[in-house]
Amino acid sequence: MAKIACFANSKGGVGKTTSCLAVGTCLADLGYKTLLIDLDHQGNLSDDVGRGDEDYTITDLFEDPKFDITKLVYPALNKEEEIDNLNVIPADITLATEARAAERYRHRLQILSDGLKPIKDLYDFILIDLRPAIDLSIENALLITDIVIVPVDMDRRATKGISDLFEVIAEIKRNDKFDYMLVKTKIDVRNKIMLKATEDRIAEMKLHASDTAIRTSEDFKKATEEKMPICYYAKNSKSHQDYMSLTNEILDHMEILGERYKDLKVV
Ligand SMILES: Nc1ncnc2c1ncn2[C@@H]1O[C@H](COP(=O)(O)OP(=O)(O)OP(=O)(O)O)[C@@H](O)[C@H]1O
Ligand SMILES: [Mg+2]
Fold this sequence. Notes:
Number of strands: 7
Distance between the termini: 36 Å
CATH topology: Rossmann fold
Helix content: 25-40%
Number of helices: 12
CATH superfamily: P-loop containing nucleotide triphosphate hydrolases
Mean pLDDT: 92
Strand content: 15-25%
Largest sheet: 7 strands, mixed
CATH architecture: 3-Layer(aba) Sandwich
Bound molecules: adenosine-5'-triphosphate, magnesium ion
Radius of gyration: 17 Å
């Protein structure tokens, strides 16, 4: 049965999509069968794996929960080439509009959970890229996630919405414990003051962050331009190494899943 991870933060541009794709590629490279699900109507993740213009998207499932989910699954591409072990369910702009039809279903919170059942055993990991908002499709994802990965950049606002996000998750999951991991992204190691401020904020909120921090690099933008995941565009670069190290940390962490429950000071 696949383990599920959502990449979430209500602040935009912190590296949710980048991290989802990079961790997904690293897992696939390690031999884990991995499914990416794009739950952002901007479709950035879909674009990044060459699936920004497909016939079927995740909207089809929210419009019709009985829709054949296997039709939504595409091999992820590195430029034109299929990536071994990496599939994707894409999203497009219709997720923001037509997926609202799902509000009328009685089991509307379980659409993703029920929809994934026929394919869940085919994967080791399902990674879901969330947009910076809470709506029905995102509640669907948070309900079934085993871990929430929260990228935070070196901006004060990156930790601001986390208490709210965790409250929403706790509410959705009711008594179900959930696990999370903050990941510092876009880290400029030379900017010691900003870095310390970020670390102090995380410590003050008593949040758990990964040991691995993702350093800032121009390669990320260039990789997107080239339609290549960072791990292929800049193989063995510091960016690739950072994400491989994070992936290993997530793998280690998920074996002790559930042990570290949030101990959050609401600020
Ligand atoms: N470590 C990094 N160093 C430099 N640039 C980065 C890094 N990580 C991501 N970026 C760049 O930052 C921008 C935003 O990243 P990304 O799209 O992953 O954020 P996001 O949180 O998914 O945004 P949104 O909230 O809009 O979905 C992109 O241009 C990406 O290439
Ligand atoms: Mg994104």
